[in-house]
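Ticket #4471: structure export looks truncated?
Reporter: QA, pipeline team
Priority: medium

Steps to reproduce: submit the single chain below to the structure queue and open the exported record.
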Amino acid sequence: MNEELSKSLSDLNEDQVLNLVKKALDDGAGTMDILSACRAGMTQIGKRYESGEYYVSDLIMAGEIFKQAVQLLGGDAQKNAGGLRDKVVVGTVKGDVHDIGKDLVVGMLRANGYDVIDLGVDVPADVFIDTLEQSGARILGLSGLLTVAYDSMKDTMNRLTTKGLRTSIKVMVGGGAMTDKVREYIGADAMGADAQAAVSICDRWTTEV
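Actual output as written to the record:
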């Protein structure tokens, strides 16, 4: 069942994924086993995206299918859908209310086992700092589509330094107009061109720890 479920998700076959999840539950399969199969499918989707076979729209669809599968599993699966790996704080910075790219990153990180704290949009620097301190998260993702977001991102980086947190927090940035030159201006550690890149960056950082 696990391989069939993983392949169905990797092929973006929504109806088959949901039917297989329901059947597995009816047959008494463990929710964590089903969740692992779904995660394996999401991993394959990421690889197909990186190879150029899938596009951003496919990642969005995959995230929606994964979310529906987790909802069917309920209870422990919903709690553990993103709670097995490191915590990541993500938000669109102050002055910007775009959320599509940010939501895609959140969905892909959760599908890959990260415990994501989604702060939403138009988030002030102090809220990022407070959340990092309270949660103990060591990875921060700053999103912004508009150029006005660059200064907000830089302000957040400055606050991290002022609070003495900069050396212990890894920061990635992303957004429509983001370039490596802008990343250098902001002072972030990495730039994620898309949701799959964000997952790869977090995977690299968590293995380094």
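Status: closed, not a bug. The export was complete when the record was re-opened. Leaving a note from the reviewer for reference: The domain at 2-80 is CATH 1.10.1240.10 (Methyltransferase, Methionine Synthase (B12-binding Domains); Chain A, domain 1).
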